[in-house]
Amino acid sequence: MNARAAARAIFDASLRAGEVRPLVARALGDVRFPARGALVVVGAGKASGAMAAAVEETVGDRIAGGLVAVKDGYRAPTRRIRLVEAGHPVPDERGANAAREIHGLVSAAGEDDLVLVLISGGGSALTPAPVPPITLEEKRALTRLLLSAGATITQLNAVRKHCSRLKGGQLARAAAPARVHALLLSDVIGDAPDVIGSGPTAPDESTFAQAMAILARLGIRDQVPASVLDRLQRGLRGEIPETPKPGDRIFDRVQNTPSRKLRAAWPRARPPPGSSGPVLFRLSAVTRPAPRSPPASAPARARAPPVHVPLLARPGAPPPAPPAPAALATCYRASPRGQGGSRAGRERPVGTPIRSRRGSPSISRRLPALGSSPLWEVDRRCLI
Asked: What is the value of pTM for the model shown?
């Protein structure tokens, strides 16, 4: 078997190993279902329809009702949990209506009830919940403005969470005093609960002050919709409650199960028998965001903190001691200054497998140009 066929076989095995339904069914074994109260199921995301079907197959007779928003064409057969299609990646009114229904369902839950939340990639766009008088179109305009200004996902979430009724732990707040258990299938490296779906059931560490500072730093404070600016200013003055923070008592009754706990089946993705394919490793996390611009010099690259990535080898093989022989570099294409709506230009990630010497502490060298756009390799130590 040649390398291409082996890689395709590994890819196909990975998809089978990550099939949603068995992962969710296994995770439900750790859920403490209510002895007297009702079980209400809500959620949103591209995989959340399959998650809802898995919940029904496992505990269908216990479900009192629920609603899950999915992307167009991503329905799954359910009886007790209603699935509604909504716009993705551009939010639409169908998603806004679903968000309002979800907010109503969890707000009606009582102390003896359990709200089971199913979140997967795309959940944030599928349940837009702007706080009145902010409209859906104004929320969309805000997102476009932030993206065109070069906002990072952390900056984007900090602003959007403070304009939402669900994001940033506010679904958990609405559900109190009911217990909440969220199953989170991540589409982001690191599986941080406050990032997946904009963290509707996770504490939010950002503040109104930080949201305002982000707008000022990006130079777009005077361009955001008036309703958004008014809300952030009122929050800054203490006239609006902050998003729930770490240590808030509402999280005493909230449990988040991230995808790293759901993804127990991943080792089944392995080279086919008889092939000389590579040993597989799991890329589990990164500890810092990519820089806005490439390092200017070798000393600057040397100062960049390395990213330590836990590794796991094929079943039966001992974990290798990092650094391993192969590394995965994350590269960025930089446009000339000022293009793309930001001072640093736009970057696009390009996954570039390269080779490094065993024992090398990190990978930090300039790569050849691609057309007229130079590529810089960002220090990663992400081993494969």
From this structure: 0.72
